Amino acid sequence: MSKRPSLIGGLTLPGAEPATPKPEAPAERAAPEVSAKPAGRRPRPETVHTSIYLPREVHRRLREIAFTRDVKVHDVIMEGIDAALQKHGHPSVEALKGDKNG
After folding, report:
1. Which stretches of sequence are listed as region Disordered (predicted)?
2. Which listed residue, 15, 22, 79, 88, has the most CB atoms within 10 A of its CB?
């Protein structure tokens, strides 16, 4: 499998000489396959990944709240999930996490 050309490799700044493209490495010298997961990540069987779709303005305001409080958007969303759980008579996120880890 050959390497895809860089999208920005052929760009030059005004007044600069164009860059000389590097010759492609022979197939026998190709880099070994790299794992898709970044090094250092631990599997978390107790955690489930999910995605949500937000209106652009809602996302912008969540980012604003997170920035103002110096936290991540994830933390603000988790507060909302915690409030929804408690509103419907369920234990808090922390209590539920304690049940699984304790």
Report:
1. 1-47
2. 79
